[in-house]
Amino acid sequence: MQPSTLTAAMHPNAVGLETDDPLIYRARVNPERPAVFEVATGLGQTYAELDDSVARIATVLAQVIAPDTAPGEAFARIAYLGRNSIAQIAVCLACQRAGYVFVPLNWRLGAMELAPIIDDCKPALLLHDLEFAEVLGLIRDLAPKRLPVEGEGGLLTLAADMPRAEPVSINADAPCIMLYTSGTTGVPKGVIITRRNTFAAAINFALVGEVTAASVSLCDLPFFHTIGLVAICRTTLLMGGRLVISDRFLTERTLATLGDTSLGVTHYFAVPQMAAALRSASNWDPSALKALQAIFIGGAPLSPALIRTFLDDGIPLVNGYGMSEAGTAIHMPLDRDMVATYPGSVGFPAPLIEVRLVGEDGADVADGEVGEIWLRGPSVTPGYWNKPEETAKAFVGDWYRSGDLGRRDPGGVIHVPDRLKDMYISGGENVFPAEVEAVIGAHPKVRDVAVIGVDDPRWGECGLAFVVAVDAGATAEEIFVHCAERLAPYKRPTRVIFLDTIPRTASGKAQKHILRQSHIPS
Length: 522
What we know:
The protein is α/β, with parallel strands linked by helices.
């Protein structure tokens, strides 16, 4: 979907959907109910207060960008560079209420990495935390109109005295968010997310995650990722729960927050590396986490061994599968027996999405066979910003091709062995790196691992394992012996490279293109 065609979503008969705004209803019927709380500052707002902030910020946005917005130009982009905060959630919702597109930027990126993203989305306004003013100063020409969120003359100061803006009337298929992909292939793309997409994605996670008005969700995953911004924040607010916001993941602080009885956190989302860090922390005490219904996991393959350790402590790690392009797509139920029976599985399709597993011939594969995951439903993106060719490649009719591989067992449970692009062929056999990574990751001396396929004169390709060891005593020979006891010969890596850390995206995916470029001769 291109900018010229996006304007079609704002037509004379457009319908303003109050139902997809997670605040309007709650501010009306539960105005004094706690809505948001910041761990770092202790600040909080009720639903009425948050709704008021959103309405006033919407006025500021309209006044700041109006002079430089061409008449009739729809869906101006508002970029935001900042850590998780009540302010960022308010801006996101204000963009939707005013008819703009919210573009959260990855604050972990440097100026030269942010530059192509900002140049691609061409924001009418770039909001930023004061912390990132210096980084943005290096690329000032790409976003000449910018405004700090905090401080004198900043967004929050200006909003305090502004009148409330009324919601604009916009079609459900109008864009409201644009998320840039995590770039595991090195080239981020702007994923267009419409109002309908956001609403359906939130409903999907509410149903699979059993999120209700009684739920309290802690979010320390960054808002520039769909898990943080949509699955956790939008879902919790839409259902009338309480959203606890942390500006970053700090192991001991996160555990203290999860165990804070005054908050009573029921839902927490993490990537596997975060879950492993929590259990290794000095203040790990599962008895203090009685209010927690589950730790929801996504973003990267989940080791069955890690699942078992948490189950032994009485806490299920509930796995799922999703992406910026579709939100929550497949998920395990909140059932400890099911989690124990299918460790590492991602579960069943969410209620508002259809899933196909498709072979190379374009036909659905049989149960037990591996096929590419195709998705269809109201939460699926209409396409990529300014990339018609990429959009065309990603769709077959109205089915979105995920690029990930799935296998369904006779009971309907789906497993995700790996990404289609990560699979390699050794001696004529398909090898899924995620399977090898799970085996190596279970070794007691391994903290983290990523496996890629590399050229081999005898086998065509063979595995190269990048390993982060628990201590300096780990050896490649130990890894080889461990694999020989658990993997077929063609699946075993033939080389091991020890690293201090494995580069990962905010969602936990290993950036294998960086590993390949850094350690494989061209």
